[in-house]
């Protein structure tokens, strides 16, 4: 199993930057595909970005392309989401997720989830 804990969420002004971290436990972390999802008030949880176990492949939602970067440091058992040029519509609870299979963007492909971290972008 994999346990995930997100951190780094806070209030930030529009146009600002923020880096989220997801600390994972488990000796097989380096073999897990990792993903970031978010859920805004009144909306369904949506895909943001994913990264393969090696870090060699990444996929981004259209809303994240050019602004967000997902990365991982397997030696530290940590995955990151660097968010730049933040917009008010980025306001959401951001969740880290993991799966012991190939890269995926579908929410239900991920069996392991963190509790989320709140990101609020002010106008």
Question: What is the strand and helix layout of this fold?
Answer:
Blueprint (H helix, E strand, L loop, with lengths): L2 E5 L3 E3 L4 E8 L7 E7 L6 E6 L6 E3 L7 E6 L4 E6 L8 E8 L12 E2 L3 E6 L1
As a percent range, the share of strand residues is over 45%
Structural class: mainly beta
Order of helices and strands: EEEEEEEEEEE
Broad shape:
globular
β-strand number: 11
Share of helical residues: under 10%
The overall pLDDT, averaged over residues, is 95
Q: Give the number of helices.
A: 0
**Computed CA radius of gyration, to the nearest angstrom:** 13 Å
Which stretches are poorly predicted, pLDDT < 50 over at least 5 residues? Answer: none
Task: Summarize this entry quickly.
The protein has strands at 3-7, 11-13, 18-25, 33-39, 46-51, 58-60, 68-73, 78-83, 92-99, 112-113, 117-122. The protein has 123 residues and is mainly beta.
Notable characteristics:
single chain, 123 residues, mainly beta, 7-stranded mixed β-sheet, 4-stranded antiparallel β-sheet
Note down, in words, how this protein is organized:
The chain has 123 residues and is mainly β. The protein contains no helices and eleven strands. Strands 2, 4, 5, 6, 9, 10 and 11 form a seven-stranded mixed beta sheet that branches. The protein is globular. The termini are far apart. The model has no long low-confidence stretch (mean pLDDT 95).
């Amino acid at each position: 199993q994999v346990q995930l804990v997100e951190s780094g969420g806070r209030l930030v002004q529009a146009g600002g930057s923020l880096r989220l971290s997801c600390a994972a436990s488990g000796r097989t972390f380096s073999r897990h595909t990792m993903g970031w999802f978010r859920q805004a008030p009144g909306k369904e949880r949506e895909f943001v970005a994913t990264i393969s176990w090696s870090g060699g492949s990444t996929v981004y939602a259209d809303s994240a392309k050019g602004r967000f970067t997902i990365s991982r440091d397997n030696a530290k058992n940590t995955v990151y989401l660097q968010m730049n040029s933040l917009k008010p519509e980025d306001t959401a609870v951001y969740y880290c997720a993991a799966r012991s299979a190939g890269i995926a963007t579908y929410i239900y492909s991920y069996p392991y989830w963190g509790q989320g971290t709140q990101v609020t972008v002010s106008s």
